[in-house]
Structures are given as structure tokens and as C-alpha cells.
Amino acid sequence: MKNFKIKYLLSFLMMASIFVNILSSCSNDGSGSGSSGVLAVESVSKAVGGDLTPTTVGFANNMYIIQGIGFTTVEKIFFNNTDTYFNPTMVTDKAIFVTIDLNTPYANASNELKIVTKNGTVVYPFTVAPPAPQFKSYNPINAVTGDVVTIYGSFFLNPVVTIGTTPVAVISSTLTEIKVKLPAGSDKKYIKVSTISGAVTSTDAIGTAIYDDVFYGIDGTGGWGISNLLIDNTAPAEVAQGTKAIKVDITSWSGFQIDMWANGGHPVPSGATGIKFKMKLKADARVRIIVGGDWGHQVWFDVKADYDNYVVKWSDLGLATAPASVGQLVFGSDGTNTTFYIDNLGFQL
Prior knowledge:
Blueprint: H1 2-27, H2 33-36, E1 40-46, E2 57-59, E3 63-69, E4 74-79, E5 82-83, E6 95-99, E7 112-117, E8 120-125, E9 127-129, E10 134-139, E11 148-154, E12 160-163, E13 166-168, E14 170-173, E15 177-181, E16 191-195, E17 198-201, E18 209-212, E19 214-215, E20 220-233, E21 245-259, E22 266-267, E23 274-281, E24 285-291, E25 299-303, E26 308-313, E27 325-326, E28 328-333, E29 338-348
Parallel strand pairs: 2-9
Antiparallel strand pairs: 1-3, 3-6, 4-5, 4-7, 7-8, 10-11, 11-15, 12-13, 12-16, 14-15, 16-17, 18-19, 18-29, 20-21, 21-28, 21-29, 22-27, 23-26, 23-29, 24-25, 24-28
């Protein structure tokens, strides 16, 4: 806590020093616009960190210094036509300290800073960027060359998509979805989305799914003490990856079973370090995972009522190296009756 306070005290003192220096330079210069009537924006820079390098890109909820001339009688400041609050005590003839409003639009916007004074109006090209992109999921994970993949997330403004190191043409995009066609050589590669605000990479590699809206390479599902099994549950609050998830009611000390024995079992990808899945329960409880019928190496997890990521490492199963294939998975309940929600089941690379 002490370090936290010192950090922000130093930031405040640095910003105050910058303001005082600018105010001083204005006071020492008698050529202000109060008499000349000149109104102009010369640059915009961040107000923290001590770096006054001019920029034409800003982020909501961050403070910036607008430098120029003729600001003494400022009445209104607009970013992308959004009326933005400013503190009159943080204004001089040559500088304005202002924080971009949190709700300033960034999509389909004017990309302009506008300052209105009693003597006139000045417009300056300035882009308010979205927050850094957020990557929720993509579907299908087991896509092959030529398949259209949908990427889900947030803040996808003018996205650039890369699979591995290969740039991929965007078929269509909104702020929350991107569609691309999978190029050759994408298997076991990760998807990266970049925007003006940063980049984010998928946590799942292409071709590593056992279940991703549908099952891949299994014989069937079953178990004991289960009911109301729904493989393609589409309730949005119960889906973590793609558009569907598994939902199954289960009684105490029972199991939901996935069989993959046919054709020698589900092949384990090269480089896989274990089995991963997303899971949540109706209420917090313990869940055991049995892999390949090896009940001697049950792996227990404390699973919550919200989706989280879980990984069964090969070492958890008493294995020194990855197996060639996996023949069965059992998700077992503890002594409570509950509901399992399982999604994004596959292999961890």
C-alpha cells in the first residue's frame, strides 16, 4: 500500500511540475492571444510519465495536455463530438490539461478534437482509440484449411489478424466478432488480433479440441447418476467458448463419461502437456477427473460457480511423457447433487 501511494504521489507531483512549467512559460511570454486573437492547437501529449512527445491518438479516461495558443477564453472541449469536462484552473493561454471522457465513442467517430472559445473554434485531427482488444474465444477450434473461423471478443476496431506468423485477410468484423478464412499451415498455431490499441493472442491452438460446440473423435457419452444431458446447450450465461457448451445434472458420487476408444483413442497432439477444459458448477464443490480409465490417478479440482480454466498435467496421471492417445474421460461429482457445465475441452500445448 505504501509503494502504491508513493507511485501515485510521484505521478501527481510530476504532472503538477509540468503544469507549473507551462504556466511559467506562458507568463514570461507577452505575446499571448488575449491581444492577438490567434487560436491554434499545436500538439497533444500525455500528461503523465513526463513524456511530452506529441501524439494524435489518445485513450478514454486518460489525461492529456493540449498545447497551442488562444485558450484563455475556452468554453467547450469536444473529443469525437463528446462534450468533455475540463477544470478552468488547469487552463492557460497556451495549454489545457483535460481528461478524455470515459464514454467517448471511438467507432464511426469524427476523429477530431474541437475547442470552442469566445473568440472562435479550432478543430484538430485526433483519434480516440478503443481499449486494448479482448479475446474471448474462437470457433471452430478444430478448423481446417478453408474453413471460416469466428473470433469472439471485444474492442475489435479495424482489426489485423495473424495466425502463427501469417497475416490473414478479414472477411468481416464488428467490435465483438471477426470472421477469417483459415489458411494452409494453421494447425497447432495460435490466433492473434491486433488493433491500434494493442494485441491479444488466443489461449487455444488450432486443432486441439475434443469438444468445441461439437465433439471430435469420440464414440459417445454416458455415465451413471446423470440426467438432462444437453450436449449443445446454447444458454449464453452457460457457454464459455463458441456458442454451445455441455450441461448435465448429476447426483452425488456419480460420473459423466466420454468414450474415445475407437480407432485406438483420441490422438494426443505433439507437444501437448495435458488436458484442459473450462468448467463451472451450480454451486462450488469438488470434481474429480479420471483419464483413460486409470482410477488410481484421480485428479481433484475445486470447481466454482463461475467458469474457470483447469488443466490435468500428464504428471498428475503418473506419466513421465505424453501418451499417444486418450481413450476415456470421466468427470465425477463429490457428495453433492449438482449441475456440470463443461466447455472448451481439449489438449493444452
